[in-house]
Design goal:
The protein is of the alpha+beta class. Helix content is 56%, strand content 11%. Strands 8, 9, 10, 11, 12, 13, 14, 15 and 16 form a nine-stranded antiparallel sheet that branches. A four-stranded mixed sheet has the order 3-2-1-4, with helices on both faces. The protein has a three-stranded antiparallel sheet with strand order 5-6-7. Helix 4 links the parallel strand 2 and strand 3. Helix 27 packs across helix 30, helix 28 crosses helix 30 and helix 38 runs antiparallel to helix 39.
Length: 853
């Protein structure tokens, strides 16, 4: 072993021992600044020891750049260094430097290195804002001090503060867009996400580049921030560093994302515990979101202030009213104490913003004053009739409602005006289908309802836009949206708990009796329509008449339909699909007919659907009584469970194959615009449904709906709606393939393959759902309702079907509902095994085993 290798081994052991000791000390005293400083010093010493042993030219310098240059080193962060040379190296020096860098790696560091002269540094800096930023924080570790100081002088002389500010703010906007412009991601990156450490660093970078200071204290001394703001920024910065350190320690690698897998473990290191209503991780994440929100607000204020110093623009305030002026397209307060002396202006400013869409926001002066005055929103403020009127005016504004509410939430005004809303700010929802925190979901639902009213968005949900155009006082829907989930996390039924909050708000804000009744109804029943549409048999007249009786009139029905669509759309982009949209619209239209006096009788519906189907069949030249042979084998249930268009399609495909000896499989693009509709006609057999599911499972199709029917002469006529994201734009190409392959499979009668327990998603593994199976007779005692709930995975429906086939359970209908990462399926079944208590228990036990992974 040569001397350099021996030295590297000794330094490596020393660094490892020191890092372990520093981490152990942090786990005892929880002082992030101390850990960052001690780790940096430890690495400084190790690198210096190696540098000195190499006896490099005295003109060279070892320079720390980036975060390491800033004097902070997280447990598993990269160590970025610059080897600064006076002139380009010759071959011998280049070889020696390559060996040096290898030794830097050998001592256990994740080294990011560059070897440059000062001129090369300036050239790279001019071409790459990232290089310029890393050099801004350069710090000499070893070697020639004068060369390093000369580099600093040259970099400072080459710095264009205005260009640097513009580049860094543009870079920040791009980074924010990458993280969906929200600090409320359920798995935020505590370094890069909006409101994270990087946003704090951007402020200090542009301030330092402009010569305004390189610390919060210095920025306060220059008057860019107040001492209170400086203190808050230091607290938030310390909190994020603390979290990032714990992430590194837990993961034993560089990890800056608060992913679901680590949230609970990190929360426990802070002392958070699970309670009856909330997980430890939810407490941690709510603290994180509050801090990120504060950083986002202060970041906006500071960057505006720094930008104003770098780009002074002559201001000529244009009066808006006695309290506000327009300054360069922004709302500015007339006096510094506007909010303090007239607290109601803390609501008025958002009304002004809503009524003046040409204004793009507020000045830093206004934001700062609002931030500091928000504590004046107290019980007396909330009781003031003028303030209550202002809040209603914001909701009733013809435009800008969503922007106003989001800005109110960001500035903490909304949470202080609605204390119960404040409780759910940053609150996570681990139900596997909400991808937003509760407050963000609520504001998303308000946004969705608002979009129904806008002509530019009418193409998205034309039926909703048509309905809301004739709906008086749509602002009542915004109130209901604000309160529909406001009681999440309190324990108990949040719909019922939210009713009390909504009723209190309506009473305090002077809403009329009928207005209050509508809002309260919507809050209490905001889940009812979606659950009924996706879990109940909409061909059952009792289901429709019962729902019509619940809503009572067309206004309540329309309001609930609009809120339901907006609510589902506001949970996650993955939850909504065209099939759910069709179910809701069907339920709305059928209920509307009942409310209009038309009885929802099976006989009338049967006549109507047969008549419509016959009209379509005539278009395909199927004349006379050609359809009757098939229709005579189908009972009323078939016609009631299928649309006229589906009846016509299946009749056209099967009218001349009623006694087919071989299975018939027909496919088409689904009329709802998503997925494939697959009809299977074959002699009935015990495991037919399971066999079909096994095919869809192998093809990675998701089954959205299944209608299972048995003809009078013993044939199965099953219809499936299936989708696959991989083939979202290529369904036409695979129609013939599905028809051919599925027909062959059903003809072959090959043994059923064993179900494969597909892997759960990472979210489902972290927050697993306890599978449930509920089997009970239906109201008429003719069939059994089988309800299952579990985490979604590939092959789940096939696993269920396999168990039903094993126990010879007959399947009549299947309601397949996927909510993000969770499935809730309902099957209508019968079979001799269900009449035996012991066998029924065995069936339920095996179903539970099939649902587990």
């Amino acid at each position: 072993m040569n001397s350099h290798a021996g030295l590297a081994l000794a330094v490596k052991e020393k660094l490892r021992a020191e890092r372990n000791a520093i981490i152990a000390a942090f786990q005892s005293d929880h002082k992030p600044e101390k850990l960052l400083s001690h780790l940096r010093q430890s690495v400084d010493d190790g690198l210096t020891q190696i540098w000195q042993a190499f006896k490099l030219p005295s003109s060279a310098a070892l320079v720390a750049v980036g975060g390491y240059g800033r004097g902070e080193l997280f447990p598993y962060s990269d160590v970025d260094v610059l080897i600064l040379l006076e002139s380009a190296p010759d071959a011998a020096l280049k070889s020696k430097l390559e060996e040096l860098v290898r030794l830097f790696w050998d001592i256990g560091l994740e080294i990011g290195h560059s070897i440059r002269t000062i001129d090369e540094c300036l050239t790279e800096s001019a071409a790459d804002i990232t290089v310029q930023t890393s050099l801004l924080e350069a710090r000499r570790v070893a070697g020639n001090r004068k060369l390093f100081e000369f580099l600093q002088d040259r970099c400072q002389a080459a710095m264009d503060p205005q260009a640097f500010f513009q580049a860094k703010t543009l870079e920040m906007r791009q980074r924010h867009a990458k993280y969906e412009d929200t600090p409320y991601s359920l798995e935020p990156n505590c370094k890069e996400s909006p409101g994270g450490l990087r946003d704090l660093q951007v402020i200090l970078w542009v301030a330092k580049a402009a010569g305004l200071g390189d610390s919060w204290r210095k920025l306060a001394e220059r008057g860019l921030i107040t001492s209170t703001e400086a203190r808050q920024l230091m607290q938030k910065e310390r909190a994020f560093k603390d979290i990032r350190i714990r992430l590194h320690i837990y993961a034993k690698r560089r990890e800056d994302r608060l992913v679901f897998d680590v949230q609970t473990a990190v929360a426990e290191t802070f002392g958070f515990k699970n309670t009856d209503t909330r997980r430890a991780s939810e407490y941690l994440m709510q603290h994180y979101y509050w801090a990120a929100k504060a950083v986002t607000q202060l970041n906006t204020i500071l960057l505006q202030n720094i930008g104003a110093q770098l780009f002074p623009v002559p201001t000529s305030p244009q009066p808006i009213n006695v309290h506000f002026n327009e300054v360069n397209g922004l709302i500015d307060i007339v006096r510094d104490d506007t909010f303090e002396s007239t607290p109601s202006t803390m609501l008025e400013v958002f009304l002004v913003r809503a009524l003046h869409p040409e204004l793009k926001g507020m000045t830093a002066r206004t934001l700062r004053a609002l931030w500091h005055a928000r504590f004046k929103i107290d019980a007396n403020f909330r009781k003031d009739p003028h303030n209550r009127a202002l809040f209603l005016q914001i909701l009733q504004a013809p435009q800008g409602v969503t922007h106003a509410l989001r800005a109110m939430n960001q500035s903490s005004v909304l949470g202080r005006y609605l204390p119960n809303f404040r409780r759910i700010i940053g609150q996570m929802q681990h139900d596997l289908f909400h991808v937003y925190t509760v407050d963000q979901h609520i504001l998303m639902v308000v946004r969705n309802v608002r979009r129904f009213t806008m002509t530019e968005h009418a193409h998205e949900y034309p039926y909703c836009s048509q309905l809301i155009a004739n709906f008086a006082q749509p602002w009542l829907l915004y109130v209901a949206a604000l309160f529909h989930d406001i009681a999440k996390g309190r324990g108990g039924d949040h719909s019922l708990l939210g009713v009390a909050d909504a009723r209190k708000f309506c009473k305090e804000h002077g809403l009329k009796k009928d207005e209050t009744s509508l809002v309260v109804f919507l809050v209490e029943h905001h889940l009812t329509m979606s659950q009924l549409a996706q879990k109940q048999d909409l061909s059952d007249p009792n289901v429709i008449s019962g729902f019509a009786k619940l809503v009572g009139d067309e206004r309540h029905l329309t309001a609930l339909y609009l809120l339901t669509v907006a609510d589902i759309r506001g949970t996650s982009p993955k939850v909504w699909n065209a099939w759910k949209g069709k179910l809701l619209e069907d339920l709305y239209r059928m209920s509307l007919r009942v409310l209009g006096g038309e009885s929802h009788s099976p006989d009338r519906e049967l006549i109507n659907r047969k008549a419509e189907a016959l009209k379509t069949l005539r278009l395909f030249s199927i004349e006379g009584n050609a359809h009757e042979r098939l229709w005579n084998e189908l009972d009323v249930g078939y016609f009631l469970r299928h649309d006229a268009a589906d009846i016509a399609w299946e009749t056209r495909a099967l009218y001349d194959k009623v006694d087919s000896a071989v299975p018939v499989v027909k496919c088409r693009l689904a009329s709802i615009g998503e997925g494939l509709q697959v009809a299977v006609y074959a002699k009935d057999q015990r495991d037919l449904f399971a066999r079909i599911c096994s095919y869809f499972d192998r093809q990675n199709f998701s089954i959205l709906d299944a209608k299972v029917h048995t003809t009078r002469h013993g044939y199965a006529l099953d219809t499936f709606l299936v989708t696959d994201t991989m083939f979202a734009n290529h369904y036409r190409d695979i129609i013939s393939l599905v028809e051919h392959e599925l027909s062959e499979l059903l003809t072959s009668q090959a043994p059923l393959p064993p179900p494969i327990k597909g892997r759960l998603s990472r979210l489902s593994r972290t927050f697993p759902i306890t599978p449930t199976v509920d089997l009970r007779p239906d109201e008429r005692g003719q069939y059994y309702l089988l309800s299952v709930s579990a985490s979604d995975r590939n092959g789940l429906l096939y696993a269920i079907a396999s168990v039903l086939a094993k126990y010879k359970v007959n399947l009549h209908t299947a309601k397949v509902m996927t909510l993000g990462e969770r499935v809730e399926d309902v099957f209508l079944v019968d079979g001799p095994v269900l009449n035996n208590a012991r066998s029924q228990i065995q069936l339920e036990t095996e179903l539970l085993e099939a649902l587990h992974v």
